[in-house]
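Appendix C reproduces, verbatim, an entry submitted by the partner laboratory led by Prof. M.T., so that reviewers can inspect both the input and the predicted structure.
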Amino acid sequence: MNIRNYVLFFLLLSFSWQVDAQKTFFFIGRIKDAQTHQVITTANIINLKNNRGAMSNQLGYFMLQVNDKDYIKISYVGYNNLYYQVDTQVTDTLDFYLRRKIFHIDEVEVFPWTKKEFKVQFVEMDTPLDSNEWLFNRINLSVEELKWLTPAGLTINYKTRKERQQIKVKAFKRWAKKDKVFRDIVKNLTDYQGLELEVFIRYCNFNKSFISYARTYYLTEAVQKKYLEFEKKKVLEYNK
């Protein structure tokens, strides 16, 4: 290769570098809220061609190295994504306006109940879960397909209103049976009778769950502890 060809080769190489340098430039923009026009900080900006990214500063500005006709993606939590194709003819700083995402939620019904009233009303309330048909209508799969979701297969454990009533009656019978045991323990450990007996039982203030499921040993221990406290309280009131 002679000197003329060398010179021509280097001229072409230098020209290609200049063209490439002209394509690459720093793109500057500012991100704002579309509704309030307030700046959005820490928004993510990414060049989808080379995956280079940037983040908006406290004033909403960002700077990103791009080439002509590259696509950039602007995203921020709670806002819809915005896409823009870079154009070298645009030399001014551009403002980008992000729109907030709109989330649709189901209607919420508020009831003016106390905590105790809510428990009672909730148990008595008719709900869609009382029907397995409602569940299958909400799931876009057949029963046979659902059985493959877990090794144990599909199990539905929703209680109907009748079943809930049966559970409540069963729980009440259990409590009534254990309540008799509780009263017998009180009578055996104390010499209270009549009104004094009822006052002491109220003083114990054991909830139904404890009386229903506690073993006799723990019931006896709890009653004995309350008995000592009650007797001490009686002495203090007598000495006043």
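Residues 3-98 form a domain with the Immunoglobulin-like fold (CATH 2.60.40.1120). Additional entries are available on request from the coordinating office.
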